Amino acid sequence: MTVFKTFLKVLYACKIPIITYTIILVIFGGINIKTSDENINFVANKPDVAIINNDVDEGITKNLIEYMAANTNIVDIKDKKSIDDALFYRDINYVIYIPLDFNKEFLKGNNPKIEIKTTGDYQSSLAELILNKYIKTANVYVNLVDKDEIIDSINDTLNINTEVILTSKLDSDNLSKLTSYYNFSSYSILAGCVYVICLILSSFKNEKIKKRTIVSSMNYKDYNKKLLISNTLFAFILWILYVLLSVIFVGKVVFTLHGLFYIINSFIFTICAVSIAFLIGNTLNNKNAINGIVNVVALGSSFLCGAFVPIEWLPDSVLKIAHILPTYWFIKTNEYLKVLENINFDTIMPILINMSIIIVFTIFFIILTNVISNRKSVE
Predict the structure, then answer these.
(1) Higher per-residue pLDDT: 22 or 52
(2) pTM score, two decimals?
């Protein structure tokens, strides 16, 4: 009980950094969620097109102009210099020059060439797709139906729309928010555990406290066990707090099967963070070096593994280095869960593998901590 009371006193002294890391998570986690909420959806805006018709306004020529008018914004420009200026200033994206006798030559099957001018941007590419769609459809019917029926046949084909039915029931928006939150939480969990636990362990290494412990009747192993339980309890409370914050930020999706895996993954990572903190705490003797260690371990892992920058934006060379850090496997699981459609034994295998790797990291850090502790006790 004495160890636990002392632990609580030291923990209370560390309330400022705990609150600070929580505030950082709330602010930047909230920003990440807000950013992921602003989904970038493709909207097919009509391109601005100028049509210079050198043919008679009838037949295929007239129908082509009407089709382009229905699917693009027709800009009325006649002067050649004005057209060049409009293209330069992006007032129009595409210019179509319909040649003389286009209607007659097309009906003969000669496929007359249409000259174009383009800005070369995505809007002009869309205009070209629209034009090519009409020309290819008309070329199919020119040799199949009578001249009197060709326009009706072309229009009937072009008016056919395909109905798209979304069968996926994945709540991608909320899962993206949850992924952003938990990815960033890796920094707060790791930084909080390393800073607080290292500070607590260094406080218990104080010469007066060490002498009191030695002269007391408390067994050294029992003392270490209570210290380990106390620090683990702190990490567990910290983890519970961050899980509750995820419910506040994201909502009901946390209570789904996907949300359960996010929570389990964060719990395993928290245990790993505790093992890292104990390793550093048993190695470190200088309190003043704790801030530097936190920056190297927590910030370094976060930048390298995709907590701050989306993992798909990181270069391959950085990701190869990130493989040696447990944060990478934590974030990799979160990213996988974000796009996981169905949860079954086969689909969760990658998740179990990633979690197992984090557990292996944890065991390695525990073993390394014991080795260092034994050597120090001998010395």
Answers:
(1) 52
(2) 0.65
